[in-house]
Amino acid sequence: MHRAIGKGSGKLLSTLLGDEDAERVGDEAKELHSRFYLETAELLRPFDQAPELVRALAAKDVRVVLATSAGPDELDVLRKALGVDDVVKDIVAGSDVEATKPDPEPVKVALEKAGTAPEDTIFVGDAVWDVRAATKAGVRTIGVLSGGVSAAELEEAGAIATYDDVAALLADLEKSPLATLFS
């Protein structure tokens, strides 16, 4: 199941159940997931050093746009957990696009919101679907490990670099590919 995380809910259900069963139980499954997510929101924590990475990039005048498959209710929970609304330029949510990752549409919409060209942008993600979506949009990707997906899988999907976690990326910020955005 972990390997399907990062896809939009419809694609995730199709991967796990097949198209026919996903169609049959999709709305109910999405409702149950959303309800559980909201009921357990206080348990949600950002990746270690993720808020600090976003703030460090914003302090260097990097335009940060978040891209997620989350719906509006879940997005509110994620935003509160991350606590960086004051430095994030914009957010692309599942409700902002017709096609979810691994389709490149969320990344293309993020590019529009950031006002940047693909070659001047780097996507940071922890799922193969993140890397594939960004690569299809012409955007370089840095992979961070969060469990369930290996560095080799992220690199095979097209990541230009991988880090053990967000904290390692932040520690290496000045030498990482992200440095090309502010050097």
Automatic annotation (TrEMBL):
<protein>
    <submittedName>
        <fullName>Haloacid dehalogenase superfamily, subfamily IA, variant 3 with third motif having DD or ED/haloacid dehalogenase superfamily, subfamily IA, variant 1 with third motif having Dx(3-4)D or Dx(3-4)E</fullName>
    </submittedName>
</protein>
<dbReference type="InterPro" id="IPR036412">
    <property type="entry name" value="HAD-like_sf"/>
</dbReference>
<dbReference type="InterPro" id="IPR006439">
    <property type="entry name" value="HAD-SF_hydro_IA"/>
</dbReference>
<dbReference type="GO" id="GO:0008967">
    <property type="term" value="F:phosphoglycolate phosphatase activity"/>
</dbReference>
<dbReference type="InterPro" id="IPR023214">
    <property type="entry name" value="HAD_sf"/>
</dbReference>
<dbReference type="GO" id="GO:0005829">
    <property type="term" value="C:cytosol"/>
</dbReference>
<dbReference type="Pfam" id="PF13419">
    <property type="entry name" value="HAD_2"/>
</dbReference>
<dbReference type="InterPro" id="IPR023198">
    <property type="entry name" value="PGP-like_dom2"/>
</dbReference>
<dbReference type="InterPro" id="IPR050155">
    <property type="entry name" value="HAD-like_hydrolase_sf"/>
</dbReference>
<dbReference type="InterPro" id="IPR041492">
    <property type="entry name" value="HAD_2"/>
</dbReference>
<dbReference type="GO" id="GO:0006281">
    <property type="term" value="P:DNA repair"/>
</dbReference>
